[in-house]
User: Fold this.
Amino acid sequence: MIYLKQNFSRRCGFSLIEVVLAIGIFMVTVLALVGLLGPTLKSVDEVEQTDAITSVVNSLNAFLQQSPEIAPNASKFDAIFNAVANNGHATIFVFQTYLSANSTDTELKIGFYGEDVGDGAEISGSDFQDGSTPQVAGSIYRVVLTPSSVLPAQYRSAERNSTTKVYSLTVGSPEPSIYPEGYFAMEVRIFAEEYSESFTNNLYSNLTALADVEPLFTYNAAVVR
Assistant:
């Protein structure tokens, strides 16, 4: 008897249903990952912004408390008090500038604008640009100092001004010797701005305009005699 032996080849592969299911599972996974990407990127931006604000606050506090450039031959307390009292507020700018036109290295610039507090502690329009060439690297932080709500009630207005949304001094303006307290508390509001051609035309802070702008950060600081 003769036996015939047949070899049957088995085809290895996936059916159409299996392919469709695999693609479906893959797409669901991708969509889930895309959904997580938005909050992740937002968290990264928030961390970067928090780091930037922390750096600005630390630089600002060191400047107000320790800078030898503020009234080098007089009272630092009087200089800062007068800067806030004279117009009801004072402006400080904090920003990075390039060391030169062709350099990528930067240095920190910080100083009062429009106040007589000492040449080394003041900012002018030329600090933002060299001729027609902008010198600013990154955001410019506008810091607005106003009398704080933690001042004793007899030395400030009872309520915030309805237009500017800040307190005003009622004692000691503009002569600090009349102000009897050993400390001067200020509300500090920080705003971020980007450099533009018209920026240097708006260096003086407009409290009315800023009243409707949400600051990046607000806190209280004080200088002592």
Remarks:
- The chain is about 30% helix and 25% strand.
- The mean pLDDT is 82.
